[in-house]
Amino acid sequence: MSDSIAITSGKGGVGKTTFAVNLSIAQKKLTDKIFLLDTDMGMANSHVLLGINPKYSISDIISGEKKISEIIETSKNGISLISGGTASNNLLNLENIKRYSILNEIDNHLKGYKNVRLMVDIAAGAEDNALVFSMACDRILIVIVGEPTSFVDSYALIKALYSKSTFKNYCIAVNQVDNDSHGNELFKKFQSITSQFLDVNLHYVGCVKTSGKIRKSIVDRTPIMISEPKSDISQSFLKIAKKINETPSNEWGGLTFLSKVKKRA
Ligand SMILES: Nc1ncnc2c1ncn2[C@@H]1O[C@H](COP(=O)(O)OP(=O)(O)OP(=O)(O)O)[C@@H](O)[C@H]1O
Ligand SMILES: [Mg+2]
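Above are the sequence and the magnesium ion SMILES. Below is the predicted complex in structure-token form.
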């Protein structure tokens, strides 16, 4: 089984990278090989949370100086990171042709693996980079928090994704909740607003409580899934990972990650 999951949000700072890194480690328990692609070019920080200091990034692929296999760094917990680089790379507004060449390079590299899952940390919002990389994945996870701005921006993001791709299925996770029923309640509220205007299927995959341990894990550069795998927060990430895998994937005719792997299967 090979597939790809985009982790995105309407509003920034809601916990995408925290989810991308911890869900990658959770998925590692379910799949042989996990790649984490950081497409938040300009503000890439998956490596910070993962405790890796990558020498190279996607910018070295775009400039033609490196091959994909040369820029991948594997963390001590076995996650293979494709870093997005930093603000100085000025990659925020890639031309489409460059985006597609990145997609192709990664796709070609991944087809060498049999049981592989690609997790993609996407920049917040509905800019072209975010949309193209999200639509290249089979599943899209949207992280929301209980704030009106998060609801409005997530709605706008789904609307943009839907109008460009006609993807029907979106996984929704609620971050920074007080408890499970708070998460449920916020999802229902978001769903009721969205379903009034858009004919999409929102799949609730779970919630993560507000926790000082998450902040500490970022300072320590050790994901909570590693430092405290038995904690309720880590169990939430594991449950969310399993739930995401159970949701229907999206299909479309555009260029996708792992397309060749799927065709071979
Ligand atoms: N459940 C949580 N409890 C407490 N703090 C959290 C939680 N989730 C995320 N945070 C904190 O929120 C901040 C933003 O998290 P993160 O970097 O994962 O967000 P992001 O959506 O990737 O942001 P950006 O849009 O800038 O990429 C971090 O400092 C993190 O520690
Ligand atoms: Mg981030």
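The two ends are 8 Å apart (CA to CA).
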